[in-house]
């Protein structure tokens, strides 16, 4: 379904093997912040404190990527109770 909707595509494996791997398309790259948020949520909530798991690392300094937070226009941390939905005509 993700490939049919142009979110991911298969490409030859980066290690040169006969396998293929999934990569985000340009359209799918717009979902990158959401994917990172889901990943970070999973790292905090789905592993035991002593359980090994992978971590998203910033390539340039080899440090873990900081937690993503939603923010208001002036940079204040946004909480769920700070929002409402408004229909735009």
TrEMBL record:
Gene3D superfamilies: Winged helix-like DNA-binding domain superfamily/Winged helix DNA-binding domain
Domain named HTH hxlR-type: residues: 2-47
SUPFAM superfamilies: Winged helix' DNA-binding domain
Top-level taxon in the UniProt lineage: Bacteria
Leader sequence segment: none
UniProt name for this protein: HTH hxlR-type domain-containing protein
Record organism: Pseudogulbenkiania ferrooxidans EGD-HP2
